Amino acid sequence: MKNLFKFLLLITVLYSCNEESLYIDKDNYIKFSSYDEFLNTLNEFRQYNHDEKKEWLEKKQMNSWGLNAMEVYKNLNIESLNSLEEIKDYVSQNSNYLELIKDENGEFTLETILRDRPESYLVNDDHILLIKDRAVKIFNSGYASTDINNLHLLKEVKEETFGKNQPPEINFSIKQTRSEILNNNNRDLAYNCGQEMTDREDNGKNRTYIRIEVTAKRSYNDTPWLISSEWLIRPYKKTLGVWYYASRTITGKLRARLDFIDDGTFLPFGTWNNTEFFDCHINPGNVNSYYGSAGLISWIHPTNPLNASPSFHLGAIDFTGDTPDTAPAIISCNPQMIISGLINNCL
After folding, report:
1. 3-state secondary structure of 108
2. 301 lies in some domain
3. Using alpha carbons only, how large is the chain's radius of gyration in Å?
4. 52, 78, 85, 146: which has the highest count of C-beta atoms within 10 A?
């Protein structure tokens, strides 16, 4: 119950923000007055379809990387083409937005560069947004941030060098798999599902893909970390050996447990807290993707707030994403550890 109260308190803070305080600066960076305002806007965007996002961004007169990428993506009418080479040529001409990823079967998937990041609509062509006096760059591998005075350093960080031999002025938040966490000798290993899991289900020319991850973000070194879970359900169709985004009626369910080292708020500091559950029933209708989030936990080290970061992972997952043309995609990890009768506390 304490965790539920803390979650509701955070949601109240998030939705009390004044959206009009954000603005677009002269270099086309969207700037938020606070981290709460950024999260508020991001959660709002998760509920929008492409046209609603476009209308919002045009009102702000923002040159959004994510909007541009999806417009470029939609302009490639794959079904009207005759060969894979035509698709490759188009992707090559728009390589700042699109990429073709080859899988183990020799097939390709057409993706935007920031395919798994719902924040992509809120960044400019540098993949950067501003939060007060911090600059944040979005990557598929995680996030990088620095003081706004070091913006020039952040611009030089690339996906292929993310987190490797970077200037000390830049902070990185990097996703870890279960095996990586186990190799780091993290505690609470018996019920550790890692920080990211994916699954897909194919049927002929149709695919359903799902992903769930848990992340920790903060805007300043002396402010709390916010630990939350995010997930994606996305349908695909295949033409000319290339999988690409398709609109389908999406349904699903998600039950999960978020585990983290308590900061002393609910349990003695250093104790694993295994009581943060969430339960989500998913029915967004006919769309080409669905993003969701849950489990916002505020965390700050009681004696070392500047440098210490939280330990966390998904302790249990029962996640299903379904579309009419495939069997459900399923992620199941320690489902027996999920309690029944959960409260629907998803954004």
Report:
1. strand
2. yes
3. 20
4. 146
